[in-house]
Amino acid sequence: MSKKRNYRRFLIVLLVADIFAAGVLGFRHLQNSIPNTVYIHAGQEEELSRALDSPLLTYPDTIDVSDRGSYRISCSLLGILPIKEVQVQTMEEKSVAVCGVPVGLYMETEGVLVVDTGEILQKDGISCRPAANIAKAGDYILEVNGTPISGKKELIQQIHDSKGEAMELLVNRGGEKIPLSLTPVLAEDDRYKLGIWVRDNTQGIGTMTYVDTEGKFGALGHGISDTDTGELLDIEDGELYQAQIMSIVKGVKGTPGELSGYIEYQKDRKIGTIEKNTEIGIFGRVEQPEKLCLKETEIGYKQEVQEGRAELLTCVEGEVKSYEIQITDIYRERADTNKAFVLRVTDPELLAATGGIVQGMSGSPILQNGKLVGAVTHVFVQDSTKGYGIFIENMLW
Q1: Which residues are CB-contacts of 379 (< 8 A; sequence separation ≥ 6)?
Q2: In the 8-state DSSP scheme, what is residue 65?
Q3: Under 8 Å between Cβ of 271 and 217
Q4: Gap between the Cα atoms of 220 and 208, Å rounded
């Protein structure tokens, strides 16, 4: 009897633990599904109800949401357990000019990026690693011997002028400025080296999402990361240029496709400047909007996005066209990320040309019910017809 009683107690404990764990997970899921910020059109209080739609969720209903301004509301579970405070921002009807045009990107890093450290074969035939365990991939060299540097040519000159004397470097490592001491060695080619691989710029092709009435633009829906370190690049400045798509590599299962293009780095082909590189896109100002294909469109906020038909604006064959897609899944708990919903390309013409979503299409605008609601950000490697999108409100600035 004692063994049976202990076994029953054990089962009861497991059951209680399972119920408790399910409750905690359910609470966290509900908490994560509530957005941190909700944008609503002035006078459209039903938008708040859609954004906070859950049978278990309650919040005050005595706030006049038709007024302009910003306020916070407290959400709770069945009016008992506090869950989260939500920032509500009322907005007048806002429109931007959607684009969908491919653009060439050129960005210079803030300092010189250390890509990796390596081995040097010295003049005497002995190998060494002078930067090992001192410099790290992802470091940005800001100063050498107290002198600011902005490019790798300056760094190479400083190393040459050192004649093998120790050099004091100031680097930015994860936002913290750290002093390093490195001693160059004379390599077999009679040049002094530190044993580091560096980069000071990057370039590529992406898609312009929108331009607002002040000439500010948003593009890509994700940041530009270094191909070697995988880290988001700290940029000092950058420029936008006109670009032409030259060829298309179709996406297939296991291998994402790509738009290959040509960027003309000439003064008369420059479109604008890049000011910010962030996890949710690149941002800056357009100087020559007449060189872009722009069409004024109203903004649609996340609570207006629904599963079902939508359209994708992109340029794969010389001009911006509208292609039919389906929004298949919406992840409210990821509302502030660039993987907030899933889209699937259904347009036969786009499928025939690209196989679906390919690299270079990031930033292509997504419209639903005539409003700009988001942009393409990622492609599924195992299914190029599908990808992720970002809510457009996260790309506005």
Answers
A1: 251, 256, 257, 356, 357, 358, 359, 361, 386, 387
A2: T
A3: no
A4: 7
Q: CA 293, 295, 299, 303 torsion: positive or negative?
A: negative
Question: Shortest CA distance to 367 belongs to which of 300, 281, 295?
Answer: 300
The residue written with tokens 């580091």 in the block is 196
DSSP type of residue 319: S
- Give the residue numbers marked as catalytic: 222, 347, 362
Q: Single out the residue of 36, 21, 26 nearest to residue 332, CA to CA.
A: 36
- Give dist(CA 92, CA 103) in Å, integer: 30
Q: Mean pLDDT, to the nearest integer, of 265-287?
A: 92
**Above 60 in pLDDT, residue 62?**
no
Do 115 and 226 touch, CB atoms closer than 8 A?
A: yes
Cβ proximity of 76 and 59 under 8 Å: yes
The helix/strand/coil state of 77 is strand
Tokens 């996005």: give the residue: 305
296: part of which helix (H) or strand (E)? strand 295-299
Cα–Cα distance for residue pair 390/341, rounded to 1 Å: 7
Would you call 67 helix, strand, or coil by DSSP?
A: coil
Taking the model in full, what pTM does it have? Answer: 0.77
Over residues 349-367, mean pLDDT: 94
First to last CA, the chain: 70
DSSP 206-250: EEEEEE-TTSEEEESSS--B-TTT-PBP-EEEEEEEEEEEEEEE-
Residue 327 has phi, psi (to 5 degrees) of -85, 115
Inter-residue contact 211 to 133 (CB < 8 Å):
no
Token pair 């700009």 in the structure block, residue: 372
Phi and psi of 153, rounded to 5°? -60, -40
Q: Could you report the per-residue pLDDT of 373-395, keeping only the tens digit for each?
A: 999 999 999 999 999 999 999 99
* Residues in the chain, overall count: 397
Give per-residue pLDDT as tens, 98-111: 999 999 999 988 89
- pLDDT of residue 71 exceeding 70: yes
Distance CA 360, CA 207 (A): 7
Return phi, psi of residue 309, to 5°: -65, 140
Whole-angstrom Cα Rg for the chain: 26
pLDDT in tens, 191-237: 999 999 998 888 888 899 999 999 999 999 999 888 777 788 888 88
Residue partners of 89: CB distance under 8 A and separation at least 6: 37, 38, 39, 40, 69, 70
Question: Is the Cβ–Cβ distance between 273 and 285 less than 8 Å?
Answer: yes
